[in-house]
Amino acid sequence: MPIRELPEELQKKTEKELNETPQRRTSDIDHIKDWLSKQPHLNVISPDDQMVLNFLRGCKFRAEKTKQKMDYYYSTKTIYRELFDGRDPLSEEMQYTLNAGRYWLPLPKSKNPLAPRTLLYQSNPYKPSEKLNPVIQMKTILMVMDVLVQEDDSFVINGFQVIQFLPGLSLQHLTEMSPNLIRMMYLCTLKRYPARMKGLHFVNIPSAGYALFKMAKPLISEKIQSRIHFHQTNDYSDLYKIIPKSDLPKELGGESYTISDQLAKWNDIMLKCRSWFLENEKLRSDESKRIAKWDNTELFGVEGSFRKLDID
């Protein structure tokens, strides 16, 4: 895939905030691809220039951090197989999740070209007898994020923000959420991708939603915690202070589209990407061939840090 040209506003932002220049872009892409080819556990993976550039931008062109994040990206697919195997949008369980909207639905791009991409979780109210199936929901969220990384430069450059509604969620539903799964969700959504989360907005959540947050809080860095907001409002005015009303669907006070419109659009996108998802499953690390020391305790739920990775 050739490198996509950026709109002028995004190009200026990459130069000012992400340390990108045309000369550095070419040399750093070559450097990362050469490094990948020399890693026995990753050398069957050959990302195109655009994919490597996405990670360089997500890491502000810091070469070592880019290597770490790309290693993380492909290694999590091996370590957390339950989230990355069987990614078929036509499977019965995934069709249910897509049609019910139980995933982070990308909203249309903001009229502001430098605004974060907004993802919305607002499904029909949970029924008391409904199984949450958090693994399938998480798998679907990661598939959506993979599409955005591949196709949306603004997602990588501007980051993303999530609006989270959890109507009808009960403590009974939370029995399906293990601490280990919450850890996997945190690591995979916030540390795996070359896109920074700019905000997480919980709107009118039930008490079980607060319980879910308390379960996850020990895993979340102070920096990310500072970007988490709770909005209890009947008119969404508090939310409009952060996300323009014009960017939101009619159900949240916008005027140009509905959630069902956007769900239909993205469900179609996911089906069109089916062949890519099935083929992409094979692109993962082979941990039996890793020769460099890797402190991977963070991925297995023990205190540790991926930053200690020694890969040169």
From TrEMBL:
Residues 87-260 form the CRAL-TRIO domain. It comes from the Eukaryota. InterPro entries: CRAL-TRIO_dom, CRAL-TRIO_dom_sf, CRAL/TRIO_N_dom_sf. GO terms for cellular component: membrane. GO terms for molecular function: phosphatidylinositol bisphosphate binding. Residues 1-25 are annotated as: Disordered. This is CRAL-TRIO domain-containing protein. It comes from Photinus pyralis. The lineage of its organism: Eukaryota, Metazoa, Ecdysozoa, Arthropoda, Hexapoda.
